[in-house]
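Title: Request for sanity check on Carbon starvation protein CstA prediction

Description:
We are preparing a figure and want to confirm that the structure record we downloaded matches what your pipeline produces today. Could someone re-run it with the sequence below and paste the raw C-alpha cells into this thread? We only need the C-alpha cell string, no images.
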Amino acid sequence: MNAVTIVIASACILMIAYRLYGTFMTVKVLKLNDKEKTPAHELNDGKDYVPTNKWVTFGHHFAAIAAAGPLVGPILAAQFGYLPGLIWLLIGAVIGGAVHDAVVLFASMRKKGKSLSEVAKEELGPVAGFCTGLAMLFIITITMAGLSMVVLHALERNPWGTFSVGITIPIAMGVGIFYKKTGNLKLCTTIGFILLMIGVFVGPMIQETVVGDWLTLDTKTLAIILPIYAFFAAALPVWLLLAPRDYLSSFMKIGVFIALIIGVFIINPAIEFPAFTEFVHGGGPVIAGPVWPFISITIACGAISGFHAFVGSGTTPKMLDKWSDIKVVGFGAMLVECLVGIMALIAATALHPGDYFAINSTPEVFQTLGMSVSNLPELSREIGIDLEGRTGGAVTLAVGMSYIFTEISWFSHLASYFFQFVIMFEAVFILTAIDAGTRTARYLIQDFLGEFYKPLKRVDWLPGSIFASALACVMWGYLLFSGDISSVWALFGVSNQLMATIGLIIGATVILKMADKRRYMLTCLIPMAYLFVTVNYAGYWMVKNVYLNPEAVGYNVLNAVLSIIMLILGIIIIITATKKWFDTWNTPRVQVETPNLH
C-alpha cells in the first residue's frame, strides 16, 4: 500500500459523502430554510452575534475544532495497523462526526445560540440539563489534561523546541497589541509569521548556552509550567493572547497540511505498517486495550468528537449568516478534519514499525517487544535529539513529517528544522486549545458555583474570574502531573466520546420533534447507539484493568472515580431522553378534530 492511493481514495469518499449525505441531512432531515433569520441576524449586537461570511465562519470553526486531537489520536491508534484507524476515520466522520456537528449547531441555533447544557435543559428537562452541564465541566477538564500531555514529551529535554514554543507567547501578545493599536491585519499577520519562523531558526543558537540549560526541562517541571501559563491565558483579555494565537496558528495548520499533501504526492511514501498488527487483541505498548473499543476512543477528533459541541453551541451558532451555511461549516469542516487525521495516520505508518514503537514506548517496554529500529538512529542524529521513549504522539508526527519532507533532495539537510517547526506547530495548536478550553472551564465553574454564591455568576467580576481560572488549572493540572499518556488519553477519549453521545441524543430529540419523517432520527440514533456501547465498555475496561489495578502503569483511583461519575451521568441522560422520545412518539403532532356529520 502507498500513501497517494489512501489520500485519493479518502478524498473521493469524503467529497461524495459531503455532496450526497450532507445534502440529505441539511435539506431533508433538518429542513434548512434561508428565508428564516439566523440568530446572528435576529440578535445582531456587533459583538457576539454577528452575521459572517460562511467561509470566514468555516475558518473560525475549523481552527477551533481541529486542535491536537486529529493529529495525535490517529498516531497513537497506528499501534493497531493502518487499516483500523483508516476505516474508523472515514466511517466515523461521515456517519457520526459530520452528523453530530451539524445537528448540534442546528439545535443551538434553534435556541438562539445557547450552550448545549441550556439546549438539553429545554429539550430534555432540568435533570438532563444539570447532568449535561456537569458532564461538560468534567470533560473540558479532562480534555485540557489530555491535550497538555501531548506537549510534555515533545518538549522534554528539548531546549530548541521549548524556546520556539515559548517565544510564541510574547509574539502573539505583541501581535494582539499592535493590531489593537493600528488595525492593520495584513501587517500584523506578516510580522507575526516572520517572527515565528525566526523563533525556529534561532533555536539552535541557544542550545549550548545558559538559556538552553534553563530550558532543558523534565516532564514534571513542564507539567507545572503549563497550568500556570493557562491561568494567565484564561484570565487575560481575549484580544491580548487567545485571539492572535488562534489566528496565527490557523495559517500554520493550513499551510503545513497543504505542504504535507504535496510532499506525499511528490514522494508517494510506502506504508511500512501492516494492515493489522499483533496488538489488535490488546497488550500493546501504546494503548493497552484491544482494537475495539479503543480504536474509537483513541481516535476521537478526526472521526467524531464531543469537544466540537462546545464550539458548535458556543461562538459558531452566533455567526452563521444563513441556515444553509450549516452544511459547509458544520458538516464540511468535520470532513476536512477527517482528512487531517488521515494525513497524520500516513505520517505515522510511513515510519518503520520498529522506529514507531521505539518512539512511543519507554526503552524498558520496547526491549520486551522483540523489535529493532531501522532509521531512528540516523533520524535522531539528523534532528539532534534522542527520539526514543518520547511518547504522546507529537514527536511521532514531527518525525514522520520530517522523514517525508527530507526525501525531497532540496530539503535533505533540514531534518532538524522541519522537526522543530512541526513541534512548534503542534504545540501552538495545543496551547490555543488550552487557552480556549481553560477559559470555557472557567465559565462553567462560575456558572455552577454561582448558584451557591451569586457574584460568581458575573464573568466580569475580577476576583471570581481569578478564582475560577485557578480552580480550573488546578483540576486539570493535577491530572496532568499525576498521569501518563496512555491512561490520560484513554480518559480523554472516553469523556470526549461521551460528550459526542450527549450531542447525538439532543440531536435525535430535536429531529424527532420537527422532521417530516420520524425515522430520520436514526441518523443520530445509529451512531449514538454505537458510541454509547463503546464508551461504557471502554470506561469499564479502563476502570477494571488500569485505574483500579495496582499493578498497571496507569493505576489512578481519581481517574477511576471520574470515569464512573461520567458514565453514570451519561446513563441518567439517556434514560431521561428515552422517556422523552416515547412521550413524543406517542403524542400526535397535529390534533385534527373530526366534524360531527350527524
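Thanks, this matches our download. The CA atoms of residues 232 and 469 lie 8 Å apart.
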